[in-house]
């Protein structure tokens, strides 16, 4: 029997250790400006929120509440029925009891107020008055009467299988009286949502120790960590975790598409054009960038924000700047007609490379500046020094691409090279469609972000924020890039078509040159004959 109890204790210890696995952690203290911490939660039967106080630096009494954002309307009570300018009263104090805002049994807790008859047990609302390490002068009658035994299942040590079962089946009812903190307070999450934890210090006076009128109330001090344990293992917040699977999926998709491209290049290796070598390099770079993004978020999920993660972030920013520079460079040389209209761009290629290099350097500086600089405290001049150079190179790329694309299409139209003209028209439609999609999504994003200062913005957008910031741009780039690559895909007719069209152009030029020379020659012979006749007439008149 004794052996079985030991085995049960060991099993419970392992189970308890597993339940406190890594999750998204947020530190808190009494010095924080905001006394509330919120995060999205992907719920299951094993998800929970843990609130851990640092017992070495925490003492006094605090009011604590945990709730899902849709129940925020039940938090607090109107201070005045006639004066709307007065803020709500959120914590039940003796003054609040005196004016009838709450009951005396709820002193030290957050106030639950419902006008539609909903009870606290029908919501996600959980509140408690928590007593931390006590010192002389901070005790009260209520604390003395309740500190001997904890008031609820959230603070009892995990000592028996019976209690563990109760904890798992509990609907998190709010405890009565004052709860003495002995171990992390666990709140079970069974529904997906945006959950908040609010902690406020509660000043407690003991009449027996306050002897002099100059004595002041004791202000509680506390610090600790809130852990949001989601359905996934790791330290990323719920709003960012979808990026891990997203970039992994994008990596596999790029590998599959890149493998098809590599097979086409191998199949038509003797027919490859210079532009297709450039495109192959960009395909390999994109695969590397996708795997780098995936590894970065995996590392961040496993280890949290560390010095290594900051270095990793710089690497990802450099790869992103390189991707943008290479993409604009590729689009520019395609618009100039490389390998399709002309075999080489000459010195124009050097100008394109210089512009791409500048765009890459300014893109890296911009990415580093966004990471390192604090937008709220940095002067506008410093921010513009990072933004303006990148804006200039980006504008230069866009103007040059549009000018070159229109010029190439006009040149092909004059030459009546219909097949090539059709290719560049398709390129034009792809770019036009991309611009339209970006404009539409820009309007949608602007409408969404215009409410970013609203109190409920984070609660409404936490599930789709990653999509607005990363997802749709990555997918749009993928479809745009591979649509353009499909037009310039390797085939057995690419080089032959380029040479035939070039030869036709050269033959037309030579034919025009020969015709011009023939006309000039005929015109010269006529002039000679006219001069001879004129000279003959002059001699005849003299005779």
3D architecture notes:
The protein is α+β, with helices and mostly antiparallel strands and 543 residues long. The protein is built from 13 helices and 9 strands. The strands form 2 sheets. A 5-stranded mixed sheet has the order 2-8-4-5-6. The chain has a 4-stranded antiparallel sheet with strand order 1-9-3-7, with no helix packed on it. The chain starts with a helix and ends with a helix. Residues 1-21, 135-171, 501-513 and 536-543 have low confidence and may be disordered.
Main attributes of the structure:
single chain, 543 residues, alpha+beta, 5-stranded mixed β-sheet, 4-stranded antiparallel β-sheet, 13 helices, 9 strands, disordered N terminus, disordered C terminus
Task: From the alpha carbons, calculate the radius of gyration and give it in angstroms.
Answer: 37 Å
Unreliable runs: 1-21, 135-171, 501-513, 536-543
Globular, elongated, flat, extended or rod-shaped: what is the shape?
elongated
Helix and strand string, N-terminal first?
HEEEEHEHHEEEEHHHHHHHHH
Indicate the structural class: alpha+beta
Whole-number average pLDDT? 75
């Amino acid at each position: 029997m004794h052996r079985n109890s030991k085995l049960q204790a060991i099993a419970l210890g392992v189970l308890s250790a597993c339940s406190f696995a890594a999750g998204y952690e947020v530190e808190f203290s009494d010095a924080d400006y905001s006394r509330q911490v919120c995060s999205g939660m992907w719920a299951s039967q094993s998800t929970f929120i843990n609130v851990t106080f640092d017992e070495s630096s925490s003492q006094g009494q605090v009011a604590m509440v945990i709730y899902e954002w849709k129940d925020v309307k039940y938090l607090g009570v109107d201070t005045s029925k006639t004066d709307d300018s007065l803020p709500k009263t959120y914590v039940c104090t003796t003054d609040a009891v005196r004016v009838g805002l709450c009951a005396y049994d709820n002193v030290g807790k957050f106030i639950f107020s419902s006008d539609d008859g909903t009870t606290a047990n029908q919501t996600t609302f959980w509140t408690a008055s928590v007593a931390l390490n006590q010192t002389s002068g901070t005790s009260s009658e209520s604390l003395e009467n309740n500190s001997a035994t904890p008031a609820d299942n959230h603070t009892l040590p995990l000592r028996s299988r019976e209690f563990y079962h109760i904890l798992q089946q509990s609907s998190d009812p709010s405890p009565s009286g004052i709860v003495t903190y002995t171990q992390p307070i666990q709140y079970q999450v069974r529904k997906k949502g945006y959950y908040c934890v609010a902690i406020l210090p509660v000043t407690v006076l003991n009449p027996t120790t306050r002897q002099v009128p100059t004595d002041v109330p004791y202000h509680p001090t506390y610090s600790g960590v809130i852990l949001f344990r989601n359905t996934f293992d790791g330290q990323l917040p719920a709003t960012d975790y979808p990026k891990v699977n997203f970039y992994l999926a994008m990596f596999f998709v790029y590998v599959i598409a890149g493998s098809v491209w590599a097979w086409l290049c191998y199949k038509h290796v003797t027919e490859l054009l210079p532009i297709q070598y450039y495109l192959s390099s960009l395909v390999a770079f994109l695969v590397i960038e996708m795997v780098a993004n995936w590894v970065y978020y995996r590392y961040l999920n496993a280890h949290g924000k560390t010095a290594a993660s900051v270095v990793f972030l710089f690497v990802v920013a450099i790869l992103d700047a390189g991707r943008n520079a290479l993409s604009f460079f590729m689009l520019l040389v395609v618009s100039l007609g490389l390998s399709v209209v002309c075999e080489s761009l000459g010195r124009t290629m050097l100008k394109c490379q210089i512009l791409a290099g500048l765009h890459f350097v300014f893109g890296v500086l911009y990415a580093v500046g966004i990471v390192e600089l604090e937008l709220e405290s940095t002067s506008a001049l410093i921010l513009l020094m990072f933004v303006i150079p990148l804006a200039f190179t980006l504008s230069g790329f866009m103007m040059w691409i549009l000018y070159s694309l229109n010029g190439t299409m006009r040149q092909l139209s004059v030459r009546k090279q219909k097949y090539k003209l059709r290719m560049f028209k398709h390129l034009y439609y792809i770019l036009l469609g991309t611009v339209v999609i970006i404009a539409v999504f820009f309007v949608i994003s602007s409408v969404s972000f215009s409410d970013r200062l609203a109190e409920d913005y984070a609660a409404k957008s936490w599930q789709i924020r990653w999509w607005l910031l990363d997802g749709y741009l990555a997918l749009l780039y993928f479809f745009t890039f591979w649509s353009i690559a499909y037009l310039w895909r390797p085939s057995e007719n690419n080089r032959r078509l380029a040479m035939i069209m070039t030869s036709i152009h050269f033959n037309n030029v030579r034919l025009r040159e020969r015709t011009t020379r023939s006309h000039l020659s005929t015109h010269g012979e006529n002039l000679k004959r006219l001069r001879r006749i004129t000279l003959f007439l002059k001699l005849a008149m003299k005779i």
